[in-house]
Specification:
Layout lengths: L1 H20 L3 H22 L7 H29 L5 H23 L9 H32 L1
Helix pairs in contact: 1-3, 1-4, 2-3, 3-4, 3-5, 4-5
Length: 152
C-alpha cells in the first residue's frame, strides 16, 4: 500500500510541474511576479532600506522554484524506488535519471506553450535540485537508521 501512496505522490508532483509549465508565459509571469512581490514585501519589513529590483528578483524566484520543486521530486522519486528494495546506488541512479528525463521532456513540452520555450539552463537547475533532494534523502535516512540502531 505504501508503494502506491508514494507513487501517487510522485505523479502528483509531476502533474503540478506539468501544469505550471503548461501556463502561457503571461500567466506564468503573473504568478511568479505575485510570489516575488509577496517575498519582497516581507523583506521590506525586515530590511526597509534595501533597494531590491523586482525584475531581477522575479528571475531569481523563478529559478529557485525550478530548483526546489525538483528537489521535492527527487526526494519523492528516490523514496518511492526505495520501497522496491533494490540497492541504494541503483535506486539513486534511477531516481536521478527519472528526474532528469522528466526535466528534459518538460522543457520540450514548453516549446508548444504560447510565449514559452525550452532552456537547457532550466534542465540543469532542475537536475541540480533533484540531485540535492536525492542526496538529502540519503543523508537523513542514514541518520535515522543510526538513531534507530542506537535506540533498538
Amino acid at each position: 500500500m505504501k508503494k502506491i501512496i508514494y507513487g501517487i505522490a510522485v505523479i502528483c508532483c509531476m502533474l503540478i510541474i506539468f501544469s505550471l509549465s503548461h501556463q502561457p508565459a503571461t500567466l506564468s509571469d503573473e504568478l511568479s511576479t505575485g510570489v516575488t512581490e509577496y517575498i519582497l514585501a516581507a523583506l521590506k519589513r525586515i530590511a526597509p532600506d534595501a533597494a531590491i529590483d523586482l525584475n531581477n528578483s522575479n528571475h531569481i524566484v523563478r529559478k529557485n522554484a525550478h530548483f526546489f520543486i525538483y528537489l521535492v521530486l527527487g526526494i519523492l522519486v528516490v523514496s518511492t524506488l526505495r520501497r522496491f528494495g533494490t540497492g541504494w546506488y541503483r535506486v539513486a541512479g534511477w531516481a536521478l535519471m527519472i528526474c532528469v528525463v522528466f526535466a528534459i521532456t518538460d522543457e520540450v513540452h514548453q516549446i508548444f506553450v504560447p510565449g514559452r520555450g525550452a532552456q537547457v539552463q532550466d534542465v540543469l537547475i532542475d537536475s541540480a535540485g533533484a540531485f540535492l533532494g536525492i542526496g538529502l534523502y540519503a543523508l537523513f535516512s542514514r541518520i535515522f537508521r543510526r538513531k534507530a540502531k542506537q535506540n533498538g
